[in-house]
Task: structure prediction
Amino acid sequence: MTNKNKQLTTSHGTPVGDNQNSMTAGSRGPTLIQDFHLIEKLAHFNRERVPERVVHAKGAGAHGYFEVINDMSQYTKAKVFNSVGKRTPIFIRFSTVAGELGSADTVRDPRGFAVKFYTEEGNYDLVGNNTPIFFIRDAIKFPDFIHTQKRDPQTHLKNPTAVWDFWSLSPESLHQVTYLMGDRGIPATFRHMNGYGSHTFKWVNAEGKAVWVKYHFKTELGVKNMTNEVAAKLAGENPDYHTEDLFNAIEKGDFPAWKLYVQIMPLEEADTYHFDPFDVTKIWSHKDYPLIEVGRMVLNRNPENYFAEVEQATFSPGTMVPGVEASPDKMLQGRIFAYSDAHRYRVGANHAALPINRPKVEVNNYQRDGQLRFDSNGGGSVYYEPNSFGGPKEAHEFKQAPFQVSGVAEQVAYDQDDHYTQAGDLYRLMDEREKARTVENIVNSMKPVTKKEIKLRAALNFYKADADFGERIAKGLVLALPQEVK
Ligand code: HDE
Result:
């Protein structure tokens, strides 16, 4: 859409006579309040900013498509994953987690990897990260965790003491912290990183048979990372480096692509697997549950307008299509509430009707009114249900698959606490050079911590994951690990 060589108007469409001079009494006289155009411009300007996302504020987006390579209908009735060759339009938003809207792209931080599939059955949002795991495994700890990632309420500075105090007192974070402090903590570009759904989800096929599923997006460019030195230089010289790289690549037709794979776990195996498969701080061994290729995601169109499409995009893990359902993962359960709540606050009650969020299929329901109801608001159609006027009706075939629940209702922890094996496995998978870089990143990150007990507690956690890992960190921090732990 272009407004080239058009008449300038107010937002009410009335033609503007003069956009250079305010209306005053004589050239030196006071400005007249009747200068409606002046007042409208200043007042709208004051209201241009909507609240940034409370996490994942800095991001970049692109349009593209998802194409099915292998039909998944044996596992799920979700049409987006059925029929080889089928293409579904998508919109993706990549992001950092902790930084504000104007912060640098090339920081050590997980990256958001949020995909909106505009499927023929409504939108499906797969809102993941570039890491298959997360720092915590209960939503109740998320606000506290993010507080430590943001600015100290007194100094307004980042606070490594808070970061490591929380992490060292939350050993479930060890696996993701090891991942973050390793080479993948700073991707070379958004195009050279993988994406993961992270959580375990449920797929249900047309016969009502369910399986557990984990998603993996593997970049076709291969994973490439950025060194601390290059990252620090770019953070100063070009803080929007990843944003610019993505835009320019698509602009010149160098379309980035990812293959989507899934891991499938038969429903009953969740009860006997050697750890809680709904614990998002853990990965499922690919030996136990090998990757199955599903399709290919290609990004081939830049946004026309950043605010309209990227800033106003609203993703929620609760936006699922028939055949995709939640698992009991406590983090996923918490997110199902939190995201739409965040959207109602940040963008507005009718955020789903905005062009970037609107499904490509009809929306027929009885929700009415609310701020910025810029569509027909249902016109004169029936506005309640049940009704005798042929209004939209439910169809039981789309009910969620019933599942057994049991247990005493209480605030209860996970029943397994092995926070160390997989963190240690990850460290032992690294080659010698990456081990050294990871240890150096952890030591440098912990050096400004003001309390020795925090450093010691953190070093002991790493030691429990792998003795060599903990020893090297303790040495770098000039700490002696207590004999009794060895
Ligand atoms: Fe988020 N997260 N999150 N998160 N998250 C948000 O939604 C939240 C978590 C992720 O590009 C917020 O619109 C809770 C895991 C991405 O617009 C908010 C918990 C994973 C994005 C929110 C988590 C993510 C967000 C902030 C703990 C990876 C950006 C503004 C249960 C699997 C999406 C907003 C975009 C954004 C809540 C943890 C990824 C506040 C409560 C785990 C990619 O709703």
Observations:
- The first strand starts at residue 59 and ends at 68.
